Amino acid sequence: MMLAEMVHYTDDGMRLDEAIAAYLAACDVEGESPRTVDAYAETLGMFHAIGLQRGLPQRVTEFRPAHVYAFLKVIADSGVSLGTRHRRFRETRAFFSWCTRMGGCARSPFTGIPNVKVEQKVIQPLREEDIEALLALCDSGGGRGADGHLRVAATIR
Predict the structure, then answer these.
(1) Spatial distance between the Cα atoms of 70 and 116, rounded to a whole number of angstroms
(2) Per-residue confidence (pLDDT) for residue 128, from 0 to 100
(3) Phi, psi of 109 (to 5 degrees)
(4) How far out from the chain centre does Cα 104 lie?
(5) CATH 1.10.4030: does it fit domain 3-101?
(6) Is 114 exposed, middle or buried (0-12, 13-18, 19+ CB in 10 A)?
(7) Tens-digit pLDDT profile for residues 94-149
(8) Residue 99, exposed/middle/buried by CB under 10 A (0-12, 13-18, 19+)?
(9) How far apart are CA 90 and CA 67, in angstroms?
(10) Rounded distance, CA 140 to CA 79, Å?
(11) DSSP3 helix / strand / coil % (the chain, rounded to 5)
(12) Residue 46 and residue 132: Cα distance in Å, rounded?
């Protein structure tokens, strides 16, 4: 089946399940890696399932920002990390961006919605005793101490 035949346009707009299938096929055709397409399929499968459970629209044209927030709330309440929430947000937004580019909807429901924040990972600096322990380990390397010292010095600078 040709990609263009996978999406049926009606006066009501594109059906969500058909649009998802067409988007995944387009990602494959455009050269996305199999892992990426699988990740998109997982997220969009969740989006569709949550939409069915929560009574969200089943036509792409009917989605509004409130529906996006309803989906994101379910994801947030599931206890996943901010990184996972951010990924679900990005993958669903990319889908609606594609739908907009393909003429499936006039405006993405993600328009105006800020990105989900990601957690900031603070890397603790090495303490003086940590550096001394690393240098001592280098000194015990059977004559390779100078080389080890250079590596440690390069790492901490």
Answers:
(1) 14
(2) 81
(3) -70, -10
(4) 22
(5) no
(6) exposed
(7) 999 999 999 889 999 999 999 988 877 777 777 888 777 777 777 666 545 556 55
(8) buried
(9) 15
(10) 46
(11) 65, 0, 35
(12) 50
Contacts of 43 (CB under 8 A, 6+ apart): 87, 88, 91, 92
Q: Which string of b and e fits 71-91 if b means at least 16 CB within 10 Å? A: bbebbeeeeeeeebbbbbbeb
Token match 């792409």: residue?
A: 60
Contact 65, 112 (CB under 8 A): yes
CA distance 46 to 139: 54
The widest CA-to-CA distance across the chain, in whole angstroms, is 79
Nearest-angstrom CA–CA distance, 100 and 92: 13
Tokens 């499936």 correspond to: 104
The residues spanned by each domain of the chain are 3-101, 123-157
**45-103: per-residue pLDDT in tens?**
999 999 999 999 999 999 999 999 999 999 999 999 999 999 999 999 999 999 999 98
Angle between helices 65-77 and 34-54 (to 10 degrees): 100
Q: Is the whole model's pTM more than 0.85, yes or no?
A: no
